[in-house]
Amino acid sequence: MALLLLLAGWASAQSGSAATKLDQSQIEIPTTIPAAAQASDHFDVDAATEAYLAEMPASAQARSDAYFEGGYWLILWDFLYGAVVALLLLNLGWSAGMRNLAERITRFRSLQTFLYWVEYLIVVTVLTAPLAIYEGYIREHQYGLATQTFGPWLGDQMKNLGVNLVLGGALVVMLFAIVRKVPRTWWIWGAVVTIVFTAFTVMIAPVYIVPLFNKVTRLDDPKVTQPILSMARGNGINAKDVFESDASRQTTRMSANVSGFGQTMRITLNDNLLRRGSPGEIEAVMGHEMGHYVLNHIPKTIMFMLIVAVCFFGFLKWSLDWSLARWGAKWQIRDIGDPAVLPLVVLLASIFFFVLTPIQNTQTRTEEAEADMFGLNASRQPDGFARAALHLGEYRKMRPGPIEEIIFFDHPSGYNRIHRAMQWKKENIILFEPAACPAATAPNDSSSPPVGQ
């Protein structure tokens, strides 16, 4: 169902072979800090910001803008395409037919629900394959962001299908059991169970889900690990190892994360960041990711999602009652506890979350801005942070309008991130003045050691 896919997507977003050759049209790592961004007693934040933005060629910026703005339309097309698929399943009687087939196979209702989920997932995967192939494979290659050939890409999609089959099936069976058990208050309990299930998925993802898609190995280079672990210990993160994932087998994008709970918590960098990022950039990115952990963004996000889930399930109860009263007989749906109602649930969920897009993006963007500031204070790498923003600018628009950023951006724009980093540098300029820090303008390492080192 759409809510499950949203939650699974958020959880998997916390995660990340052979290194790929850097496309010459992509931004190359600067060897020095731009002149206008050098530490001085007349340091100008705006001039420093513009100097970093000038490092990005106009052609690369135009391509990034085109890619990101195209994503605005994909939000709409995903919504419309999904709505058409749901309506086809309902109006052609396919959903009722899949339910009838499950009932002929077994008399156990929970097993019937799971079998329906298997049928539904396979049918929807086939029907949405054209858009999924364009969006996830063709378009990514057109913009130089993907490294996989079609076979390995399709293999990853099959793995993703398997994960959704198992985890999605478990959640769907539980939710329909709740609907049948407590028909009056199912929407409250459904919201609670969904969020608990999401938290469980986040906890197991680093150990059991991520390795299905990427090889995760312990990083042994002390030049990389020691500053990261020192920064982690200095900020209350009890980490003993740093891990690397081979994301370059799929993408050119750079990423890192601090994921999991308790014994499953781990710090992970992808190999693109290790290959393309300077030491200062790596520390800045990891400081940001540690900020999410130290600032308790995972539990805060789960609480936010619980509120959203309760609102959604309340909307779902009202809209299902209204819809089934009008079209239930036509669609051969018996009641809310009938698995054949699932396409209608997905349709209503897609409407709800489509409208909620700006609110969800704002919540995420706010946490990202908080993690940015934490990362700057923890790593003391504003120039590394600016370079990271340039790399992210390969697929994120750097200078959106204010309304555009509110509606479509789930992270602060590249311009705002660089500007805030330069503002932080100005307020802490003593750390970077040659007399106080002789290595302040050295290539790739632009600041003092991170806190805790």
Task: Describe this structure as you would to a colleague.
It is a single chain. Helix content is 66%, strand content 4%. With 453 residues, the protein is mainly α. A hairpin with a 6-residue loop joins strand 3 (256-259) and strand 4. Helix 7 (150-181) packs antiparallel against helix 8, helix 8 (186-213) packs across helix 12 and helix 14 (357-379) runs parallel beside helix 17. Residues 1-31, 436-444 and 446-453 have low confidence and may be disordered.
Describe the secondary-structure layout.
Blueprint: H1 2-12, H2 45-53, H3 58-91, H4 94-105, H5 109-127, H6 129-142, H7 150-181, H8 186-213, E1 216-218, H9 222-234, E2 242-245, E3 256-259, E4 266-270, H10 271-276, H11 279-294, H12 297-331, H13 342-355, H14 357-379, H15 382-392, H16 402-408, H17 414-427
Parallel strand pairs: 2-4
Antiparallel strand pairs: 1-2, 3-4
